[in-house]
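TL;DR need structure tokens for one chain.
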Amino acid sequence: MQVSLLAGCSYGAGKGVKRMQYKILFAMSLSSMLLAQAACAGEGAVVGEQMGVKEVNEPAPSPSLPATTVSEWMAQIEASQVQITGVRVEPTEAGLLVVLETTSEALSTPVTQTAGNAVIAEIPNAVLSLPEGELFEQFSPSEGIALVSVISLPNGRVQISITGADAPPEVQVSTEADNLVFSAVPGIVQVDEADNSLRISVTGEPETGYRVERTTTATRTDTAIRDIPAAIQVIPQEVIQDQGATSVREVLRNVSGVTFEDAGGGRSENFNIRGFSAFGSEFENGFREDFFTIRTQRDLANIERVEVLKGPSSVLFGQAAPAGIINYVTKQPLLEPYYDLSFQVSNFDFYRPTIDLSGPLTEDQRLAYRLNLAYENADSFRDFVDTERFFIAPTLAYQFSDNTRLSLEVSHLDDARPVDRGLPVLSNDEIADIPISTFLGGSEDTDFAETEALLTLNHRFNPNLSLRSAFRFTDSFEEGSQLQIVSGSPDDRNFPLGEFASKQEFETYTLQNELTAEFETGSVEHTVLLGLELARRNRSNASRNRSAGAIDIFNPTYEFAFGEFSDLRTADDQLSTLGVYLQDQISLLDNLILVLGGRFDISRQDRIRDGAPATDTDAEAFSPRVGLVYQPTSNISLYGNFSRSFTPVGGLSMDNEPFDPQRGTGFEVGVKADFLDNRLSSTLALYDINLSNILTSDPNNPGFSIQVGEQRSQGIELDIAGEILPGWNVIATYAYTDAEIIEDNRFDEGNRLTDVPFNTASLWTTYGIQEGELAGLGFGAGVFFVGDRQGDLNNSFEIPGYTRVDAAVYYKRGNFRAALNFENLFDIRYFESAQNRNIVNPGAPFTVLGTIAWQF
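>> reply
TL;DR here they are.
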């Protein structure tokens, strides 16, 4: 239903028609699914055959009347399911027994299947009713068995998994007095038959919890975080959901040392990491997302988690700021039917329905899909600033064999919003004391459109050698005009305005090939990664500007005195890059890991301005990384690293020579520790990063630049995430950042870098009641502190610090989820960031965000 409706949308229609089509699309999609559920309730079906989902309850005769409400329907479904009231794990001489206890009715005997080292069985027509909630886990219950877990699945199913330590166990299933008994014996490792498959998924269930154990961002290989010689933080889906996050800035406030830097006039979201701008250092699934790709705020509808790797990272990612990189990991197809419908609304006329669908398309489960849809229509606490966006992201994955998988991800985003430059600073170096709702620009929308396509092939040649080959294409478009303050005011009241109109188009083509090999040299284990990346990025821009009179910031009338437009200016840029990288993760001992890596990059930038002959700039750079991890105990890792980064610098010197790339050099030491039986993880890091080759004015040749600028950042960071007690989750951070100018011809040495507070801290915690009549009810609270910051490199004004308090109350029961998130609970006046004296971005006042969702 959703796909056919979407196909009927006309992108060529006018804005009003498009808005109506999007609203109709989501209204029909949501209502059709809910009506289908209600219509099938009386016959015991969850979703009809038209939806392509198997029935989980056979029709049963009943003298009662059919359900006429959703609550009655849910009661009937729950009443027909067998309740599992207890799980017993009993060690035996040969292995162990897992007993699923019921009240009276017998459970259906399931069929088991093997995936990796786990034996998995799904029990239909059953529900978990345990005192500890809808999840049972026991780690290392006996020798040779690593984990026994029992969880609830959608559509009235329960899944049991028994995972072997080194090989899949041998499992037999039997019944005993209505109880279901799993007898498990540890398996024997068969080297020739090791499971090295690349199956899309096993259970179709996403990772849960605040603590994440493994990541691919830091090394481009699947590696445990404790084995990585660098600070890396992962914000999983459960944190995003609990906080009701609708923007990236709300997600990244959970990472130490990351602060919001610039809103791009409300269009984009740029960040600062460890004192340096991370602009141009954002990635999606390892592919660069920068000025050439993402032109407006990222949509979170298809984002599974966000990973932040701290420090210089050019060794695997090419040109990047010394701050680190932000990598967005997208949602992938699942092998179990999964449907999630949600609707969010807030007090600023914010409306956002989303749909997340996934499952297999063929009986053999070789072809699976994922479809994410989102529509957003919102006003703002800022006068005359409203937004409308539509986002769609379909994904297909096909498993040719156990060793070969091909996937295609596509996404498209339409976004319309006016450019909003915030508030100005007065001559007394104070931010204008006017209502934060005051809008000082024009209300005409700027239109954005972005399309991405990613084709990825994964192939395993043998148990120790695999290939990943991926190609991505992006196409972006931006058109509109903006009014903004262009200079200070002679009377601190009437500020000059300028209008800037532009049309920009962007294309990128990127090819990545990576070969991963695992082998041993004597007793030393190696994981070697060899990569090649080719990229080309094109940009064309046509713009013009004119004066627009002045605006009275204390009494704006929005009557503008426009002058004549300037001549049309054009610009065309093409950036071509080639990168070759090599990395070796060396296990010298069981508790000693050495990581060595290096990358060589070549780049060429061709620039044409106003039809003049092209100017070419060539650059090359070598970026090494050395890291060491020592683990004195099983739950503590000590690490240290040295790494470098580079960023190409455009333009020519006085001698008509291209500039060298900016170079970042970083040193870091730290400790990672797991507590409370590995439920809670922490990272403490100390670092020193130096950025050199910064362009600054040439004192002997006015109008030219020289590369003598230097900046440095030193600091300490602490991140904690995980579960303190069953149902009690926490994620907390602290960062001290000392970032300053070391050398510059324009600004004083010792000046603080822009938007970098000395101190930041955050704490977010939730607790969900685990048993009793109130089981499923939960509460959350958060405190987010940002210290005073300098608003520009001249340190001419200061952005005051703030402490913001958030809270949440939610209810999760079965397939239903509802939440109320209270942001800025005490309605404080605060400012998120500044770009210069004319652009200071205010933060939102007290906001209530309601969410209702249905998953089946």
